[in-house]
Amino acid sequence: MKNKIKALQTLFFTLVGLSIAGCSANNQVVNENKEVQQLPVTQIIAKDTVLHHEYVANIQAVQNVELRARVQGFLEKVYVDEGQEVKKGQLLFKINDEEYKEELAKARANLQSALAEAKGIKLEIDRLRLLVEKNVISKTEIDVAQAKLDAANSRIGAARSSVSNAGIKLSYTSIRAPFDGIIDRIPYRTGSLIDHGTLLTTASNISAIYVYFNVSENEYLQYIKTKRDHPEKNNNNVRLRLADGSSYPYEGSIETVESEFKSGTGSIAFRARFPNPDKTLKHGASGNIILSNAVEDAILVPQRAVFEIQDKSYVFLVDANNKVKMKSFVPRTRFSTFFIVESGLAPGDRIVLEGIQSVESGAQIEPKPVSMDSLIAATL
Q1: Can you give the C-alpha Rg of the chain in angstroms?
Q2: What SS3 state is found at 104?
Q3: Is 113 exposed, middle or buried (0-12, 13-18, 19+ CB in 10 A)?
Q4: What is the model's pTM?
Q5: What is the domain count for the chain?
Q6: Domain edge (last residue) among 292, 324, 343
Q7: Which of 300, 316, 308, 307 is nearest to 40 (CA)?
Q8: Has residue 245 been placed in a domain?
């Protein structure tokens, strides 16, 4: 009986040993498969690159002026239509001017009366001067007459001012175009009672347009550094993408930057000017500005080779023995399907391009080389 039990124990341990050996063999096969995993690998390069940043644009006419009534009256005539192109000085509206013509006539009559009064006093002074010379009257009579003349001259000045003021009011009854442009909506028609300050229409000069866009502080500093360190590279030129996604055919140029950053967003406004010979762009239109910025010897890393852990960026670096290890780096910016590296990686480093989900740090792989130039050519 003891021999039988001993034989069963021997058989049990033999089977357990074979099972463990089988598992070890399976694990060895799996490990061997992992070690020979074939993955695409690319080599990091440094390349002169042009970054394209896109910003929401606010399009405005170079001149956009509200035309308001400066006198009260009935709108007598409208000489233009909405959307019509006009020339500088062209008559647009006419307010009834009878009242203002009467005011001007009255002011002119008062002026003539004051002039006649002053003339009479002057003749009187000349007569009194002769009498003084003959000692017929005292000199005080001339002084009194001279005071009357001074008062009359003051009235002449006031009368001239009234004439000028009445003439200006009369001129305000004719509203003319301040510049070459296009007329906007006309809310009032012939016969409407117009008050002082009533908006009659808006005129826009869209022979050229201003485009405003907001840039972050970091991008602003990059723009300034490039302009300062590389003045030969004109990075003032910008492109415009219209609301329908099409590209505006004319190139614009950055003219100015505002003086302060917006406290809420930390951005600063740029202003670019675009020609508009076809009058395609209108005041208040929308679009996107495309600003290009040259970066010398930019270290490029494909985005698909990058993964993040706790807000840090990593790649799998491949060493000379084709073993991989995790390597963190600091990205400078992102464009297209690439990162530009700030620090942590260098030209010549080999990284796993695809399959990063299935590889572990320390594993050995069989690299399948992929040219970085071909990746750039396929995406940029």
Answers
A1: 44
A2: helix
A3: middle
A4: 0.67
A5: 3
A6: 292
A7: 316
A8: yes
